[in-house]
Specification:
With 410 residues, the protein is of the alpha+beta class. The protein has helices at 9-18, 42-45, 103-113, 141-147, 178-182, 190-206, 239-246, 268-272, 274-280, 287-303, 370-394; strands at 51-56, 62-67, 82-83, 93-97, 118-121, 124-128, 131-138, 155-160, 209-211, 218-219, 229-233, 254-255, 312-318, 322-330, 349-356, 397-399. The chain contains 11 helices and 16 strands.
Length: 410
């Protein structure tokens, strides 16, 4: 399976307008008014009852929908952005990204985190109460040298949030905690920490960074480090059926309580049987038919008298020396991005797909070497495939580690 890549917002909106298949959870409207245009009278843009806004669909794409009390206004594109003056950025954190990131993509991710997020004016994005992003701004070599922003990131957004600091972190955290390195004189707290944590999630999704003030140290999350995935679905698939669905891709899959049946994760036996396991993978030609059959069986069981949702877990070998742990249980909480969904059982069914790495890699996560990166990418591909199969058989929504919706890699 090919590695998923971030698709620029312009391409997503183009696909939205050209597609004949409409996302099931949204009401289709024209996205033409979302294109950059001359600034109209702001008062005429405010509709106290209904106005167009952007949301993220189950496919991880953006769609124009009706949303109460929103403002539909033009955006400032990077092509029209002015050069960022270091004076304007003085004392302010920066969110920096590549020049291909569209402001509407930032809005969609911000809305996924906070219901309060939305445009206040062209170039002014509310993140939550008391916190905004203003931009975009253009970064040239001169500003980059003064602000210490990453060389490949030419777009900046100024973060406006009141600074709330506690005491400095202990010295030993300087080697492991990016916040401790970026804020050596005092750790952010309260609203400031909440906003920065959300921006780091956004930065990882967009392959960007947060440039901290006043240190100008960059917090640049590894875009490839988000391996685990979750599926939130209205349909519960029992252990027998889910095992049958996944066995062609995970030949040695067993119940989580039977892990002892698998070869030890770091053993020579595990490495020696890796190729044997790969040879046993038999992807069925009637995959879509099997998915539909499992979905129908799940619906029949849910309609039966005395139906009870029971949690369980599965485990299997993936990658070179890794394992994948799959957990199934009623969700204790629903991520913000799915806050408007209705669930037949009263709550979603949560399918977790997580990487269990060999012990040898655990102390190398901060500075992953070539071997760890190779293993991580290989496992990530398999986890995406597993999550995709689960989502399609349960009519579920796939989320990454940062709780953003993602598109089906198939």
């Amino acid at each position: 399976m090919s590695k998923s890549e971030r698709v620029p917002i312009a391409e997503r909106l183009a696909q939205l307008n050209q597609s004949n298949t409409l996302p099931r959870e949204t009401t289709p409207t024209s996205a033409d008014s979302l294109a950059t245009q001359a600034m109209p009278d702001l008062a005429t843009q405010v509709n106290a009852t209904r106005a167009r806004a952007l949301t993220v669909t189950a496919a991880g794409e953006l769609n124009a929908v009706e949303h109460g009390a929103s403002v539909d206004m033009p955006v400032i594109t990077f092509e029209d952005a002015k050069i960022l003056s270091p004076k304007d950025a003085e004392g302010k954190h920066l969110l920096v990204t590549g020049d291909d990131v569209d402001p509407r993509e930032l809005e969609a991710l911000a809305v996924s985190i906070s219901e309060d997020a939305g445009w206040l004016a062209p170039g002014l994005l509310r993140l939550t109460e008391g916190a905004t992003l203003s931009g975009p701004w253009r970064i040239t070599k001169t500003e980059r040298a003064l602000l210490n922003t990453p060389a490949r990131m030419e777009q900046a957004w100024i973060v406006d949030v009141p600074a709330v600091r506690t005491s400095a972190a202990p010295d030993f955290l300087m080697h492991t905690d990016p916040f401790a390195r970026a804020f050596p004189d005092g750790m952010p707290a309260g609203k400031e920490f909440e906003v920065l944590a959300g921006l780091i999630r956004i930065a990882r999704r967009l392959a960007g960074a947060v440039n901290a003030a006043p240190s100008r140290i960059n917090i640049e999350p590894d875009a490839d480090s988000a391996v685990d995935m979750m599926v939130y679905a209205p349909r519960w698939v029992d252990e027998e059926d889910l095992t049958a669905l996944l066995r062609p891709y995970l030949p040695d899959i067993v119940n989580g309580l039977e892990e002892a049946k698998l070869a030890p994760i770091d053993s020579a036996q595990r490495v020696q049987t890796r190729e044997e396991i790969a040879k046993k993978i038999n992807i069925p030609e009637d995959e879509l038919v099997r998915i539909a059959e499992i979905a129908q069986k799940a619906d029949r069981k849910a309609a039966a008298e005395g139906f009870v949702v029971r949690g369980y877990s599965l485990i299997a070998s993936v990658g070179n020396t890794s394992r994948v742990h799959i957990t199934v249980a009623p969700a204790d909480f629903t991520p913000s991005v799915l806050r408007f969904e209705q669930w037949p059982q009263g709550s979603a069914i949560e399918y977790g797909v997580r990487w269990i790495m060999p012990e040898v890699y655990r102390d190398k996560l901060m500075r992953p070497g070539r071997a760890l990166r190779f293993e991580r990418n290989r496992v990530k591909d398999q986890i995406e495939l597993i999550a995709s199969l689960i989502a399609r058989s349960t009519a579920g929504y796939m989320l990454d580690e940062d709780q953003f919706l993602i598109s089906d890699p198939e």
